[in-house]
């Protein structure tokens, strides 16, 4: 398995990564995804793609390094998804390990993510990977005032 970071403008974002990411974030269109990455990249948003030996994208991760008063510096995972046909083959574990290595290299104190309460299979995976529930995450949906309002947290 090969994991690579994809920069804005890389054609593999739309061709390879987005179809996998849409399994978790079905509201994303190519245009909206492009807008989000264009705005998020200067804020630290990055995307990494996992490829199998045949060159197929089997996993995707969206992440950023965040500085804050609580954790000082953490790697926050916005998105972590394995293509449905590749689940239980080690893709998720490899991506999480890759992100943990990135976090350690950046001197982060925490690798952090949110997971929707309905995603019980994902929760079992995170527990197996020795992640714990360390906080409640509260949110309030706001009317974004346009048709591209973001869907629920996955």
Give a summary of the structure in a few sentences.
By secondary structure, this protein is an alpha+beta fold. It contains four helices and five strands; from the N terminus they run βααβββαβα.
Descriptive overview:
It is a single chain. The chain is an alpha+beta fold. The chain has one domain: 3-Layer(aba) Sandwich (Aminopeptidase), CATH 3.40.630.30. The chain is 29% helix and 25% strand. The chain has helices spanning 12-21, 30-40, 91-105, 120-128; strands at residues 2-6, 46-51, 57-68, 72-82, 110-113. It is globular.
Key words describing this protein structure:
154 residues, alpha+beta, Aminopeptidase, five-stranded mixed sheet, 4 helices, 5 strands
Please report the distance between the alpha carbons of the first and last residues.
25 Å
**How many strands, what sense, and barrel or not for the largest sheet?**
5 strands, mixed
Please name the CATH topology.
Aminopeptidase
| Unreliable residue stretches | none
Count of β-strands: 5
* CATH class term: Alpha Beta
Elements, N to C (H/E)? EHHEEEHEH
Give the oligomeric state. single chain
How would you write the strand order of the largest sheet? 1-2-3-4-5
Shape: globular
Q: Which range best describes the helical content: under 10%, 10-25%, 25-40%, 40-55%, 55-70% or over 70%? A: 25-40%
Instruction: Quickly give the CATH architecture.
Output: 3-Layer(aba) Sandwich
Strand content: 15-25%
Q: Which structural class best describes the helix and strand composition?
A: alpha+beta
CATH homologous superfamily assignment: Gcn5-related N-acetyltransferase (GNAT)
